[in-house]
Fold this sequence. Notes:
Helix content is 44%, strand content 14%. With 503 residues, it is of the alpha+beta class. A hairpin with a 2-residue loop joins strand 6 (91-93) and strand 7.
Amino acid sequence: xxxxxxxxxxxxxxxxxxxxxxxxxxxxxxxxxxxxxxxxxxxxxxxxxxxxxxxxxxxxxxxxxxxxxxxxxxxxxxxxxxxxxxxxxxxxxxxxxxxxxxxxxxxxxxxxxxxxxxxxxxxxxxxxxxxxxxxxxxxxxxxxxxxxxxxxxxxxxxxxxxxxxxxxxxxxxxxxxxxxxxxxxxxxxxxxxxxxxxxxxxxxxxxxxxxxxxxxxxxxxxxxxxxxxxxxxxxxxxxxxxxxxxxxxxxxxxxxxxxxxxxxxxxxxxxxxxxxxxxxxxxxxxxxxxxxxxxxxxxxxxxxxxxxxxxxxxxxxxxxxxxxxxxxxxxxxxxxxxxxxxxxxxxxxxxxxxxxxxxxxxxxxxxxxxxxxxxxxxxxxxxxxxxxxxxxxxxxxxxxxxxxxxxxxxxxxxxxxxxxxxxxxxxxxxxxxxxxxxxxxxxxxxxxxxxxxxxxxxxxxxxxxxxxxxxxxxxxxxxxxxxxxxxxxxxxxxxxxxxxxxx
Length: 503
Ligand code: AMP
Ligand code: MG
């Protein structure tokens, strides 16, 4: 892609916030970005800063709360060493191909080496129009940026690979959505922002060397152990494994991404782009919350399969690198894709065993889990709290607070069956219960709580947001003063709840 020159006069001030930025993506694959500057905002105000994440970046949080720091987080200044770029990507959206999407309201500022030695992207979202904006205003709304912050940090606390959220800054500028709403900029941090759609864009340029450089860059950043021999097939295999594991993690916590287009699927295996996402309350694989997902393509239960479909789109872009003989390439790539279902299945089943306090594998475990999920579905039981209640029952202190748990006990004797299975392993029940509580969250960002917190925040009251953030970022530690965050949505809430995309 031709770089659109930015005149010196248009350049924002450069300030030092203690970051020494690299620009390896921009340097390695110059065809896949446009150098671009953020658009200034009138009155930036720091709404929330993730001080722990700042420290993981080796950054003094004070440097980011200073006026220079806030200017960087708002896009009113750029950090020393930064070459802000809008990344190019394509994508299959709801199955249809869009050849040119790209960062229409986001910019990669560059990469920082974190304290653990990993290279991490620093990325602004809501930083103004770019050559990829199409009809959009390049801006982001405060509510959805706070939602992304909350969900990203909740996912991280649940030990699920994810892009992180560093800060949200309000801009002092209203934007036009469903009426006028406050604008904001989110700063996020990720292993990279390379998507399946980035590969699709590169492949469409018609120069296989660009795809090769993109793959080499991705391997170096995410799968450095891959050797030269058969490296592009090994890369596909690594991404397939990482994505199978990621989606298994989503399924285990009841997370619905909502818009699993190929432009929202990373090659790093991190979750990214929290738009119309949500956690499911009542268990039902058909659950959809997104306002734009009319056909239920990205319903909870479809996620594993649609993820494989997305990975097949990645495989197509790599074929010429896998083997110069296209038939051989297709055979080899298909063999790798064919491993997905069993890899996903074993990640998921092992995860379910752990959620149920089991350590050994038994052939009947799959049906034990299947029966539990059927019971939850038929009784519209709350997914998250069921597992906490099961652990509580092992301690003999189930207090009957949860109706769904009563159903499990009464309906068909599932709990007795599970208890017999635990009995075979012969482990101490208290120990098992404690282990279960370390993997089954008490607190997830439940939709009704998120809605209430974002509504309050957009009218200037950040207390509910901060309280919810504190709960979901220590999700396994049950605290009596937070009981209301563990409770299911009020009756009738789920049916009416809708999430919006691209807001
Ligand atoms: P998303 O739904 O956030 O994954 O975005 C899908 C595509 O639409 C990406 O190319 C975004 O950059 C673009 N996009 C979303 N919202 C806007 C906006 N307000 N202005 C410009 N581009 C946008
Ligand atoms: Mg996206």
